[in-house]
Amino acid sequence: MNNDSIARLLRWYRHNRADLPWRRDASPYQVWLSEVMLQQTQVETVIPYYQRFLAAFPSIAALADAPLDAVLKRWEGLGYYSRARNLHRAARLLVAEYNGALPSQVDDLLKLPGIGPYTAGAIASIAFGRSAPLLDGNVIRIYARLLDLPDDISKGATRKKLWRIAAEWLPELGAGEYNQALMELGQKVCRPRQPRCAECPLRYNCRAFAAGTQAARPVRSKRSPTPHYDVTAGLIRDEQGRLLIAQRPLEGLLGGLWEFPGGKREGRESLEDCLRRELREELAIEVEVGQRMAVVDHAFTHFKITLHAFDCRYRGALPPYSEPQALEALDWAWVGEAELEQYSFGKADRQVIAELARRREMLL
After folding, report:
1. For residues 202, 206, 210 and 214, what is the CA-based torsion angle, rounded to 10 degrees?
2. What is the C-alpha to C-alpha distance for residues 105 and 103, in angstroms, rounded to an integer?
3. How far apart are CA 349 and CA 166, in angstroms?
4. I need a surface site. Which of 79, 94, 170, 223 has the fewest CB within 10 A?
């Protein structure tokens, strides 16, 4: 990309840039928070979460001082919860080792949990004015079309090539504005489908536009079919009518969130047998499985589930225990239905909670 192309891109950006809350005050913390939230999440979805999160944790020190449960609760519904856990871990590391401030160099930023090359480049260039390139889905798509790149962008060699190009095309000054301009162009104009080439300030430099191949770029290998799993959950009540909930281990899918305990069906076992087995393995308890109360379909990044939630009666802990045990869970608790809102749950479990509330209203 030559200087004239960069100038046209920047003029377009200054005229079309969105008025976003993290652009009004591009402090390092706010740039970091926004870039993490924007990973695999639409801008419109992020804005209210960003504002609520920043109000609750207005500084790195405030985030570091907060318990993880409080951080996850503020993140609830945004998905990809490892982002929240890594933000929290990184904030505590920054307070302990960096006087509560983000470093400005890419190499130092890469040492923090949850910060990869893209996020490091974004923080360094936007918040600190460093000459740092970045690649996200929008930028990759633009470069692949500008070059009419026939290479599969899912391949490591292609990614290395694109990182090299991103560094070569970076202007000497104003890298932060240039990087934001590319991302904005990808969101509004150089879209995955039906790109608005007539509005693009880079169309005269775009080889794919000249060749008419923009719809075929970027090239990526076909994904394998998405696997599906049946998962069970128990709405387990004690004699006082309280519900048993379990906290997932910190590492792994939905780490640190609470759930109605259960797990994935194996082989040809019935859903009821699956639930009984999972509860023995996870919490060392026996239950009487009753009627199925809710069925929830939910998609994760790489697989889909159907969650089957059953009403259950607590029969007791397995000998020699006198109460549930956190064998494969981080923690457990007996809670009333009204207390469920105090805990952070994943989307599928929150739909089950909504069904509980609906049933409760029907009885009133």
Report:
1. -100
2. 6
3. 42
4. 223
* pLDDT tens column, 119-173: 999 999 999 999 999 999 999 999 999 999 999 999 999 999 999 999 999 998 9
Two structure tokens written together for 182: 């590319």
156 and 110 share a domain?
yes
Pairing state of beta strands 285-299 and 262-264? unpaired
Active site residue 266: no
User: Positive or negative CA dihedral for 75, 80, 84, 87?
Assistant: negative
| Tokens at 342, concatenated | 């105090």
**Active site residue: 35, 177, 259, 282, which one?**
35
**Residue 177 is part of which domain span?**
3-216
**In-domain check, residue 169:** yes
Model pTM score: 0.90
Which residues are CB-neighbours of 55 under 8 A, at least 6 positions away? none
Nearest Cα residue to 181 out of 243, 134, 229, 240: 134
Whether residue 72 is found in the same domain as residue 205: yes
Span 232-290, pLDDT tens digits: 999 999 999 999 999 999 988 999 999 999 999 999 999 999 999 999 999 999 999 99
